[in-house]
Amino acid sequence: MPAWQIYIVDDDPAAAMITQRGLQTLLGERFSVMVASSPNAAWLACATGNVDLLIVDPNPHGNAAASLVRAVRTFRPAIPVLVLTAYDSPGLRMKMREFSVARYVAKPIDLRELAPIVHAILHAERPLVATVGPSLTALSVSGSSGK
Amino acid sequence: MSELEQLHSHIRDLEERLLVAEAHAAKLVAEAEQQRMRSLELGARLSAILSISAALLISRDVDAIVQLVVQEAMDLFPGTNAVQLFLLDHEGDRLSLRAAAANGECRCGHVLAELAVLSPRAMLLTGPQLETALQCRNAAELGLTCAAQEFCPPSNALLGPLRVESTRMGAIVLYGGPQATLYHPRDLPFVQALADLTAVAIDEVLQRVRATTLQRDLALTQSLHAEAQARLNTAQAQLLQSAKLAAVGELSASVAHEINNPLYAARNSLYLVEQDIAADDPQHAFLAIAQQELGRIARIITRMRDFYRPTKAELAATSVNTLLRETLELVQTHLRHGHIHAIANLDPDVPFTVAHADQLRQVFLNIILNACDAMPHGGDLQVTTQLLQTRPDAPATIGIYIADTGIGVPPEHLPHLFEPFYTSKAQGTGLGLAISAHIVTQHSGRITVESEQGQGATFTILLPVNGD
Q1: CB distance B268–A22 less than 8 Å?
Q2: What is the spatial distance between Cα B394 and Cα B390, in angstroms, rounded to a whole number?
Q3: Which residue among A19, A87, A110 sits closest to B267, beta carbon to beta carbon?
Q4: Domain count within chain B
Q5: Do A18 and B272 touch (CB under 8 A)?
Q6: What letter does residue B120 receive in the DSSP assignment?
Q7: 4-aspartylphosphate is carried by which residues (chain A) (predicted)?
Q8: In this predicted model, what pLDDT tens digit does every residue of B238-297 receive, in sequence order?
Q9: What ipTM was estimated for this complex?
């Protein structure tokens, strides 16, 4: 059983796959790196409490990823969020700071550099006990209920 | 005897008639003399009036006119004790004494002037009329204020209203001496003429002053208008420039963002492949080249994205001369192929300045390549630098002049040369000079172009020398 679960939310399938395959290769068997099929799916995973790190690219063309980041930071503050974005801009950085996302890297970063960052986050902030936030019944991301 | 007596009486009669005739003759002679004197006097007065009118017409100043008039009035009417000239103020309700001649002043003047201003024509006031006129006023006031008792109250006075058409301007008052009746009704036309002349002359001066003021106001308004127009044009040009640059910036930023994902995937795929093949595999060389080239793309993308925010870190003390020399070296082959003869006149006194060397190099390269394009059949390329300093303590400027002998820029292209997407070349993007201008502006400099069609073009870049 892998010790750590990492979820990736990226609407660019190739980039998502490379992140997943790369991190899985570099980090080894103790980590389970998964690509969430949608921001909603990632949110459900976070809400049920088996996510140790969420890697998100908040695509400016849609709101879902950003809403996911906000929801996680609000209702699951114990889950660390790493923003890995191709859309680096002062505006996005500021927005992510508002959501108190401390870790932010811009693509095209080398996996060689990304892996140690992920490693460091998980070792520094691994939640010992999964904290349970407010009721989830009223919550949904981008207006549609998760499947 | 009776005949003798008859003769005697006849003689007496004849003598009496002779006496009468002689008396009559003498009277006629006297009258003739008087008429002659009068005509002489009239002649003198007419010529005086004429000379006054000539003098008034060339006068340019109200004070000069009124002084001249009062002096001439003294001469024109012999026996005059004093002459005063009053003018109404702008509102036309207060009279003020503007000029006086001869023996002091008299407050009666005000009273008489007020009378004169209202009168349609010249007036002669003698003893009783004058007293009546003056009695309209408080006698005590007169007695108190009249300092010159010897000619005040005057025995008679001539009053001339100054008016042009129906506009009242003031009045001229002439005082006779206290002893005898000095003025005669026949003086009235002269007073009238003098007053009219004065009024016309003053009116002309005032009109001229008004015209000058209006003209100055007009010129001022026009220059203000031109200035405002120029400012507006500059602002509009700047707005257009920044709007277009913003569009370029947005476009390049969005392109850069879209490229980041595939770039990230490609680079890291290569990396993962690299991990999987044996360390001595010859394919490593190709993978390294691919990695290197993808790295280059990444740097280009970053530059594209950062077009709008040159980082402070890249600013360093830079020698413009060195940059120009390097750039010329860079295009050496290009110049040789194009039969272009490059002449560099680089002033060794040009100091280092804090600048973004790569960006400036881009500017110089851009302009030099443009110059080459403008000389398809060869020509001269002159690159000159100069330290411009007006005073030793004034901030210095580096002048960079890049001149070619090419086809020149058509005048209709000149105003748009630095606008993004404006190009006259089939292969041009219209961004080279826009980016150059942007870079120069980012360095607080200015870039201008002078060109005459067929005579080549000269680009001038002025960069401030800054040490910080």
Answers
A1: yes
A2: 6
A3: A110
A4: 3
A5: yes
A6: S
A7: 57
A8: 656 655 666 676 677 778 778 888 999 999 999 989 888 888 888 888 888 998 899 888
A9: 0.79
